[in-house]
Design brief:
The protein is α+β, with helices and mostly antiparallel strands. The protein contains 5 helices and 12 strands.
């Protein structure tokens, strides 16, 4: 399994021992860095968003980030460069993805969600395809947690171990209130977004179905 971390180029241009295999993922050379000083092992320039998409996003980054993430995921569906990147990652135990953007907040949708809600690092990324088109991304963390995203980067499912729980910030408020009042002492170990609602599993093995608004529907066998 691969341990993956995200790092800005300017944090440590020459790299360090624990960076492992350093992959630069921006299309353009990092401004102000010399080729003698900046060290990378692989330049995945074709994985970056298209010039048109970058220009559109930079015109209003605060308001266009959600749409940018969806549009970028759409571009990746037909981008053969993702196969090369996946191969590079799988070949090494430790990988550092390098970017040069000054905007550290709006840089990577998946990394942002994981960084805000989980303490563990990314261990493995899997890409599922059908007829050459991406269906979903599966991210495995070093603590065993598995997170699935759809082709547009939207959260689909989270599964943790029995000793851990799905972060409260990712659980709809109405569902969290129901679990607190009706199943005291239990925590959510699995959360799945369905077309018509939510499926959750508690630490005691009970499966519960909720509607889109988070209202209780039934217990599942």
């Amino acid at each position: 399994m691969t341990d993956i971390k995200l790092q800005r180029v300017y944090t440590n241009p020459s790299g360090s021992y624990d960076d492992g295999w350093r992959i630069y993922v921006d299309r353009l050379w990092p401004r102000g860095e010399s080729k003698a000083k900046f060290h990378y092992d692989y330049w995945a320039k074709d994985i970056a968003p298209s010039a048109e998409l970058r220009e559109w996003f930079h015109a209003d980054p605060q308001n266009r980030w959600p749409d940018f993430a969806r549009k970028y995921m759409s571009e990746l569906q037909t981008n053969p460069a993702i196969e090369d990147l996946t191969t590079q990652i799988r070949r090494h135990q430790h990988v550092t993805l390098l970017y040069s953007s000054h905007d550290t907040e709006h840089n990577n949708a998946t990394q942002e969600l994981i960084g805000k809600n989980f303490k563990a690092n990314v261990s493995l990324i899997k890409v599922d395809k059908t007829l050459g088109h991406i269906d979903e991304y599966d991210v495995v963390l070093t603590d065993g947690t598995e997170i699935s995203f759809d082709r547009q980067g939207n959260l689909k499912e989270i599964e943790t171990s029995q000793s851990k729980s799905v972060p409260k910030g990712l659980v709809p408020a109405s569902i969290a209130r129901y679990i607190t009042s009706s199943h005291k002492g239990q925590h959510i170990v699995s959360l799945e977004r369905k077309r018509n609602g939510w499926d959750i599993e508690l630490s005691n093995g009970i499966d519960i179905r909720f509607d889109k608004e988070g209202n209780f529907l039934r217990y599942d066998d």
